TrEMBL record:
It comes from Miscanthus lutarioriparius. This is Uncharacterized protein. Residues 156-166 have a biased composition (Low complexity). Residues 143-155 have a biased composition (Basic and acidic residues). Residues 133-142 have a biased composition (Acidic residues). Residues 128-166 are annotated as: Disordered.
Amino acid sequence: MGTVVRLPPIVEPPKTRKCSHPGSEACVEVRVKEAWKRVKYQLGDQAFRNCGFGAMGERVLKLWTAEEKKKLADIEKLIPQSKSSDEDFMKVVLEQFSSERTTDLAKYYYNVFLPRRLASLNRTEATTSIDVNPDDEGNNQDDDNKVHRSEEKSKVSGSSSKRSRK
């Protein structure tokens, strides 16, 4: 026969989540942690580590000392915030850190720098793309008047839709 392998039961996420501010960073962080724990439980510790899940996301920061984190944060601030300047970050950090940290720098770039930068760009674009003109609010009167005028014209000309159907 063979060896029977019993997998842990699949843990489904709760249907309702209690969060005081849905969509906020804190709620997203809680959901990510829950999902991370669920995957770790389902795969088991060894498979989880072998797949590299332990060094994903903000957990990559654990690879760095406080001094190195500060240096990385300072470099992040030097890089202009635009979509085209992201590759500049790798050029700068590769010059600042030893070549033996290249793999860790790549992990930092993809798991920390890029997600933070994209989140920041998304927030910036969201706030700049909403151009609300206070003069436009409540000025639907012109539209209402046009509708009203067209109804009056149809009554005067006798081209009512009710008459044309008969």
